[in-house]
Amino acid sequence: MTTGDDQIRLRAHDLTDLSVVGAMVQDALVPAGDMRFLKDSGQFVLLLNRFRWENADDGPPFGRTHAGLRFDNVTGVRFKGIDWDQPDGMLSLLTIAYDPDGEDAEEVVVLHFAGGAAVRLTLSSLACALEDMGDTWPTNWKPGHEPD
């Protein structure tokens, strides 16, 4: 469908940047077992199956691609509602929330998933990267959300 010429590579260092990254990963599917806190390097990484919102007006078929999302400068991670006994269980990423005035003068990023699951990252400073990895494949399903 598409190749490396239109792959996303983004960096985030402030709320404006992070909101763009958040929009690109909304409705991404994340296997629980594909999230890792690399404490020695201060990184939290996850692999995701990203819906290509930037091309959503072109379908159907729509597109999905594998992508990597990395947060640097991570000093702590807390998990809520994730079933680690099901590492292949899919989590649907809803949004990324950011609090620049978190605990002890550190910043906080929360990855919110459907069903109430969440990952809370404490950061010494915001640094995030999103990169598509591989070709896009077609899907006829476009994620939808009920209005509040």
Radius of gyration: 15 Å
Largest sheet: 6 strands, antiparallel
Q: Helix proportion of residues, in percent?
A: under 10%
Principal-axes geometry comes out as globular
Could you give the distance between the termini? 34 Å
Quaternary structure annotation: single chain
Query: Which class of secondary structure composition applies to the elements?
Result: mainly beta
Q: What count of structural domains?
A: 1
Number of strands: 11
DSSP strand content? over 45%
Low-confidence stretches: none
N to C succession of SSEs: EHEEEEEEEEEE
Number of helices: 1
Q: What is the arithmetic mean of pLDDT?
A: 89
Description:
- The protein has 148 residues and is mainly β.
- It has one domain.
- Helices cover 7% and strands 46% of the residues.
- It has one helix at 15-25, and strands at residues 9-12, 29-31, 35-38, 43-51, 62-71, 74-80, 90-99, 107-113, 118-123, 128-132, 137-139.
- The strands form two sheets. Strands 1, 3, 4, 5, 10 and 11 form a six-stranded antiparallel beta sheet that branches. It has a five-stranded antiparallel beta sheet with strand order 2-7-8-9-6.
- The longest helix is centred in the first third of the chain and has 11 residues, at 15-25.
- The radius of gyration is 15 Å and the shape is globular.
